[in-house]
């Protein structure tokens, strides 16, 4: 269920999906052949429910995936994994944590950058500290080996009192990251970010 797809950069595609709360991926070449076995690569078998999977090609024939993991206390964290062109897991057998701070994170998105990868998500951590806060937007820049470039737990992109949701991201031709989201005041807001995490201001 919940399949997603991206190009592999070699004339084929990579798809990912959820099966019995686990994540699988498969690479299909230009002739329609399955390149990662009959059932694909088992990306994650963490013992709790996984969903919200999103993917991007890694520029080398592989893929980076990010998803939400439901925790035992009914909160949610964000994880990620990278597969190479042969379907091998590159970021450990159990993936890497993008954010697991207290309370929930959800709805992650991932984009390829020339220096690595950028992941953005909705984050609930501040809603229990300030009664005027709701879901915020946080992000993390990953090096090609999965190491976090920004602070552990991610960097705050927008924490307006009204709340934010539905983040999306793209990278422009100069390497700047543009993040777009739905402000719960019926406004659409954007932020421009450089790979070091500097943010000139909302748009």
Keywords, please?
4-stranded antiparallel beta sheet, 15 strands, about 200 residues, mainly beta
List the helices and strands and how they pair.
Layout: E1 4-7, E2 13-19, E3 22-28, E4 41-44, E5 50-57, E6 63-70, E7 76-83, E8 96-99, E9 105-113, E10 116-123, E11 136-142, E12 155-158, E13 164-171, E14 177-183, E15 187-193
Antiparallel strand pairs: 1-2, 2-3, 3-4, 5-6, 6-7, 7-8, 9-10, 10-11, 11-12, 13-14, 14-15
Q: Would you write up a description of this structure?
A:
By secondary structure, the chain is mainly beta. The protein has strands at residues 4-7, 13-19, 22-28, 41-44, 50-57, 63-70, 76-83, 96-99, 105-113, 116-123, 136-142, 155-158, 164-171, 177-183, 187-193. The strands form four sheets. A four-stranded antiparallel beta sheet has the order 1-2-3-4, with no helix packed on it. Strands 5-6-7-8 form a four-stranded antiparallel beta sheet, with no helix packed on it. The model has no long low-confidence stretch (mean pLDDT 93).
């Amino acid at each position: 269920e919940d399949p997603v797809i991206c190009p592999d950069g070699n004339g084929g595609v990579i798809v990912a999906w959820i099966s019995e709360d686990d994540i699988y991926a498969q690479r299909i070449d230009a002739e329609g052949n399955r390149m990662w076995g009959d059932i694909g690569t088992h990306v994650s078998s963490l013992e709790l429910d996984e969903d919200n999977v999103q993917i991007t090609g890694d520029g080398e024939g592989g893929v980076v995936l990010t998803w939400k993991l439901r925790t035992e206390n009914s909160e949610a964290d964000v994880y990620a994994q990278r597969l190479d062109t042969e379907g091998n897991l590159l970021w450990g057998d159990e993936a890497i944590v993008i954010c697991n701070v207290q309370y929930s994170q959800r709805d992650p998105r991932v984009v390829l950058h020339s220096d690595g990868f950028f992941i953005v998500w909705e984050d609930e951590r501040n809603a229990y500290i300030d009664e005027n806060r709701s879901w915020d937007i946080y992000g993390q820049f990953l090096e090609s080996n999965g190491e976090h470039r920004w602070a552990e737990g991610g960097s705050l992109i927008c924490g307006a009192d009204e709340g934010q949701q539905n983040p999306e991201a793209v990278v422009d031709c100069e390497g700047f990251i543009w993040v777009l989201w739905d402000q719960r005041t019926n406004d659409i807001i954007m932020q421009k970010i450089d790979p070091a995490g500097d943010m000139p201001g909302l748009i």
